[in-house]
Amino acid sequence: MAEEAGNAPIRSALVWAASAGSSLVAGSVLFLLRGVDPLVSAVWAAGLVVCVLLVVARRTEPEPLSALRWGCVLTLAGGAAALAVGGEFTLFLAAQAVPVVVSSAAVLRPLARRTAWVRSRPVRVRLTWTVAGTYAGLILFSLMQDLRGLPLIHPDVASLVTLGTMFEIAVAVAVFVLWQGRQSVTNR
Prior knowledge:
Elements: H1 2-34, H2 38-56, H3 62-85, H4 88-95, H5 97-114, H6 121-148, H7 157-186
């Protein structure tokens, strides 16, 4: 029962994150369909307000809070860049940042119960940051493709090298964070 009460703020935060993401997606779709008008501005502003509230909120669990903050920042920054450039897929990726980053943090909690390397809160927060950073790189990659006028399904060599390098960096950072978690377990 106590564990269920402890999860209530996390559930509440997830509902807020889902509503923020939904309103930003709805605002983006309305912008593409209708252009700038009062309805689009109101829906986008509502999503912005919810994201700002999530970013400044104080919760007890560090990894969901970090995931919500990074997801909101990625959604707002990526969405603004996508709307400025006109990239529909970049806009879609930006709109999905909150659910992707929050889901990654949600996966770490049960994994921490089974794996000692991930049990430490700083390790879980750093892994959440790694996912957020990788997702930011994916949004930037899509934006780069939009600016260069290249489709995502037919990348050139420079695009493939960029994507491969991003993947290698993400894996290296995740392995390093897990190695630090393992070192902290073995040094106890």
